[in-house]
Amino acid sequence: MIFKVFYQESKAEVPVRECTNSLYLKAETEREVRQKLKDKPYNIEFVQKLEGAFLEYEQNHHSFGLEN
Fold first, then answer.
1. What are the E-state strand segments in 1-68?
2. 42, β-bridge pairs
3. Distance from C-alpha of 51 to C-alpha of 20, rounded to nearest angstrom
4. Do residues 59 and 66 lie in contact, with contact meaning Cβ atoms separated by under 8 Å?
5. Which of 4, 16, 37, 61 is at a distance of 20 to 30 A from 45, taking alpha carbons?
6. Angle at 23 between CA 41 and CA 42, to 5 degrees
7. What is the pLDDT along the chain (68 residues), one digit of tens a residue?
8. What CA–CA distance (Å, rounded) separates 27 from 36?
9. Confidence (pLDDT) at 31
């Protein structure tokens, strides 16, 4: 499955919509996504599973690239 992760660059940052970044990650569960990112300094706001039309939209309309 593909997940879209919304995050701030630093855990010390207050979440502000205009400063939110996103990345795409392949994993089986949301828990696995959080495990993969636990060593990053990110303040994770939300993890969204992408499938069907949502995944197709992201792949076609954004700079879609999977993180390792």
1. 2-8, 21-26, 43-50, 66-67
2. none
3. 22
4. no
5. 61
6. 10
7. 999 999 999 888 777 888 899 999 999 999 999 999 999 999 999 999 999 999 999 999 877 888 87
8. 9
9. 97
Which residue carries 């630093």 as its tokens?
10
Longest pairwise C-alpha distance within the chain: 35
Q: For residue 8, which amino acid is it?
A: Q
For 8, 14, 23, 58, the CA distances from 20, given in Å and listed in that order, are 5, 10, 10, 17
- DSSP letter for 12, please: T
Alpha helices per DSSP H over the chain: 30-36, 52-61
Q: At 39, which amino acid appears?
A: D
φ, ψ (nearest 5 deg) of residue 19: -105, 5
Contact between 32 and 59 under an 8 Å Cβ cutoff? The reply is no
